[in-house]
Amino acid sequence: MLCDKPLMRFVLTPLAVAVLLVIAATAFAQTDTGKITGTVKDQNGAVVPGANITVTNTRTGEERSVKATEDTKPPDTNVDDRLRALEEEVRRQKQMLTEMQDIIADQRRVIETLSQRTSAAVTTDVNESIKPAAAASSDATSQTQTSPLEDRVKKLEGKVLAIGPFRFSGDFRLRFDGIFRKADTAPPAGFAPLTHQQNARMRYRLRFNFDTDIDSKVSFHGQLATGPINNAVTMDQDFGEITTRHPFFISEAWIDYHPNKAVQLQAGRLQEIFADNSRFLFDDDIRFNGFNEKYTLSFKNNGLKVSSLELRAGQYILSNPNVAIVTSGSPLAQAGAIVGSTGRSSNLFHQGLLANQKFNDRWSSQFGGDVQLYRNPNQIQLASTANGVALIVQNGLGITLSGPVTGTGNATTTSSGAIYTARNFQIARLTYRLNWAGFKSRNHVYPVVFNFQAARNVGIGLKERDAMLASFQIGKVTNRGDMAFLYVFSSKGANSMISQVTDDDLGTNTGVNIRTNHFRFDYGLAKKITLQSLLYIQSELRNSGAFPNFFVPLNAFTPRQYRLQEQIIFSF
């Protein structure tokens, strides 16, 4: 409250002037007497003594005759004009006082808000601002003190927005998505002919993030996003549906507990603990309900150049059928559950470690391994059938979906069945990433990243249990004119990982049993606006019947598919 006295002087000074002006104007308007002094001169400039002068009061209409003397001046006929000017000045002063009072009230509210919510943060900011101010010259200090009041109010409002209860962000992606495949009218014996596919559509994705710090150790994150409710591997919403409104759902919601820099615990609807945006293990848009833990151990300089070691683990609840006894012919029995047993939930347990190396300021790397353990995985496939979606999905949501969960692609024991050919999914993965700061061309930086990943379903001894991905990227888009080039080669066997949770772009219409070449080009139109061109060239690996109890949705004879995506992304 150090600024109260200057503010009061600033308010009282014009107020006192206004009151004096009102009193003077009122007194002047109420008097009928006065003194007129001056001289009357002829056309030659000589003073005319004793001249008769008639004076008229314009307010009352009264006329008076006086005799001029040598000191008489001409009568003042502008009294009303002066009175109106004084009244106008009084009104203007009152308006200025009202505006100043409003500004001062707003400033006081801002100061009270700052002092209540972020006294520590404001104190830090003030201390930091005092340091350069003390080193500045007396002239600079004088200019700072005389800065406009509006600028000060705007700065205070900016602080309130920056440290308010929520921080908002998001992105909007406008996408052209085309899938093209020729027909196959002469398939191998035992297979039906395939029609051509030509699906060109416009789509968009809208994501809205909101974050807040509950205290120094606990924070909250939430995200609302578009997308069909029965397709967990995309947030894209197709153009169409006549003129109906599109849905908006809870995509992410979690509490983050971080008592120190080494520990991070999360609970809620989460990103997968090993999600890396590489399109290998999991789709970029997939989210899980459960818990994440990450422990980071930091190291000083050592011969292995290891700067930190991350221990990660995630436990996710995929279903909760709540069936006391599995009966014959029930959906759970169709998914392989033993008749007479209790219907158990489906879960994913994922744990592993990542080691970060820093060789110097320009070279770094990351390597590690992890294992995914699925419990009752057949319930995931069951949710992709008409009988299973009601039990596994719709009961929890409380609504009826238009169809089963999408994303099938694994081998099953029967055609379109609910039991995977792979009895278990215990997926072990190794990953290695090499980063180089790259080179600079004009004002643009081109970092280089190489990534290799290999996975195997060690829970089975069947064929088609392996998967791999290799990628090479040059450049990164952060500002206008920046460019990035990416190439990805990936191969995923039909028994290697679960199709419903892996990437759906590398594998169009399926997540596994594919081999894909992927090319991408990014160009920065502005700081937060990026243009992207993506091309996928996809081929299937195996036909149904290639192995015992092996049926896949898309077979190896399927003609090569091309998928083209042109999109522009706006971040805010």
Architecture overview:
With 572 residues, this protein is α+β, with helices and mostly antiparallel strands. The protein has 2 domains: 116 residues, no CATH class; 405 residues, Porin (Beta Barrel). 22% of the residues lie in helices and 36% in strands. It contains 8 helices and 19 strands. It has a 16-stranded antiparallel barrel. Strands 1-2 form a two-stranded antiparallel ribbon. Strand 15 and strand 16 form a beta hairpin.
Short synopsis of the structure:
The chain has 572 residues and is α+β, with helices and mostly antiparallel strands.
Overall number of strands? 19
Name the average pLDDT: 85
Task: Return the string of H and E elements.
Answer: HEEHHHHEEEEEEEEHEEHHEEEEEEE
> What is the radius of gyration computed over CA atoms, rounded to a whole number of angstroms?
39 Å
CATH architectural name of the largest domain? Beta Barrel
Taken from the alpha-carbon principal axes, the silhouette is elongated
CATH class of the largest domain: Mainly Beta
How many helices? The count is 8
Secondary-structure class: alpha+beta
> In percent, how much strand structure appears in the residues?
35-45%
Distance between the termini: 37 Å
User: What is the fold-level CATH name, i.e. the topology of the largest domain?
Assistant: Porin
Low-pLDDT stretches are 120-124, 129-146
| Domain module count | 2
Largest sheet: 16 strands, antiparallel, barrel
- Give, in spatial order, the strands making up the sheet with the most strands: 3-4-5-7-8-9-10-11-12-13-14-15-16-17-18-19
Helix content bin:
10-25%
